Amino acid sequence: MLKLTSNQNCCGCTACASICPKGCIAVTPDSEGFCYPQIDEANCINCGLCEKVCPLLRKPAQHDVLNVYGAKNSDDSVRFTSSSGGMFTLFAEWVLNSGGTIFGAELDENLQVRHTAIESTDALPKLRGSKYVQSNMTGVFKQVRTLLNSDKPVLFSGTPCQIAGLKGFLMKDYANLFTVDVVCHGVPSAKVYNKHLQEIAAAAGEAVQQVKFRDKANGWKQGETLFLTEHQRFGAPKRQETYMRLFLNNVSIRPSCADCAFNNKRSLADITIADYWGVDKQFPEFDDDKGVTLVLINTAKGQQLFDDVKSAASLISTDFAKGAQYNVAVSKSLGLHPKRQYFFDNLDRKTLKELEQEILPQ
Ligand SMILES: Cc1cc2nc3c(=O)[nH]c(=O)nc-3n(C[C@H](O)[C@H](O)[C@H](O)COP(=O)(O)OP(=O)(O)OC[C@H]3O[C@@H](n4cnc5c(N)ncnc54)[C@H](O)[C@@H]3O)c2cc1C
């Protein structure tokens, strides 16, 4: 039976709950809003499957990265609504055009972040763009397995720990599975995000209707985080906006993100995508401030997928060291902010703005 000795040992991927043959593992949020398994010990048969599939009990070794590119989707309208260079959309379109299904994170009708499946390119806009909240994965791994067993191509996208959790859960390789992960320095909890939505709604006197984590109207590098109500617009460049400052400074992120097991050439995905920060310094002629995706090819299958879509993109060839030079999360975890515990201890007592001002004074 899975025994959690520290919250740092669980990434909340849901593999354990999904594999349990007795359905006796529930994944529920703790006081910080991060989900952890709760085992109904009375019904547990000690089969050991939950331990077998846990990605943090079997951390991967480093592997070679086959190729690294800076890439821009040739369709500027797609790039505008993507967080970086819009390469995720090209991979997804290829799989959809082959009759497949895409899994990724969407903002649902209540602005909650959850993993969902789509089967048509019309639905792709909802998966496009980063949502900086840990996504709800309830029931998703089993849905992926059912589709894989029907021999349909499936592209699963998510954070590196979600990919690792899926691979653990599946327990075997599938030729029809393609995986794409995002470089990720950490995920905030849905509780912190919902508190922000509520505080904005209280200030506006009306509910938030739309969230744009990385709006590019003023350029990719500036990237604004926007919360729109019916009549008002709240937001700021991402490095000045309260929610994003708490996220980017590792205050509001999950404990297991302090020391990610899947960065620095340890991703289990076929392809890893990230922002190509620093491309303006290394390849100034390639940067138009509309977004460049850093694409790391981890497997031969990933290379094949990339080669199949690359005619719809502009590319430069680069390398791992260059890609990581201005993007720490590619190769390192930076731990948690020293006042993270204070932040979560006071989350129910103070506003996010108050906590931001105390913890991250400008
Ligand atoms: C929580 C998080 C942290 C990140 N941290 C970094 C970082 O530190 N450095 C960096 O370079 N890049 C980071 N990224 C990745 C970056 O923001 C872009 O998503 C990436 O560069 C791909 O951009 P794109 O334009 O090619 O595609 P986009 O269309 O922007 O990519 C969308 C993809 O992101 C996935 N996605 C969106 N939100 C989530 C979510 N909440 N959980 C799981 N998957 C999600 C979708 O399923 C889809 O596959 C992070 C992304 C997330 C979600």
Kindly describe this structure.
The chain is α+β, with helices and mostly antiparallel strands and 362 residues long. The chain has three domains: 7-53, Alpha-Beta Plaits, CATH 3.30.70; 67-187 and 253-330, no CATH class; 190-252 and 334-359, no CATH class. The protein has helices at residues 15-19, 49-53, 76-81, 87-97, 140-149, 160-170, 190-204, 242-248, 279-282, 300-309, 320-325, 340-345, 352-359; strands at 25-29, 35-39, 67-73, 101-107, 113-118, 154-158, 177-182, 208-215, 224-229, 233-237, 271-275, 293-297, 313-318. The strands form three sheets. An eight-stranded mixed sheet has the order 5-4-6-7-11-12-3-13, with helices on both faces. A three-stranded antiparallel sheet has the order 8-9-10. It is globular, with a radius of gyration of 20 Å. The mean pLDDT is 97. Residues 82-89, 104-105, 113, 127-133, 135, 157-159, 180, 182-185, 187, 273-275, 291, 293, 327, 329 line the site of flavin-adenine dinucleotide.
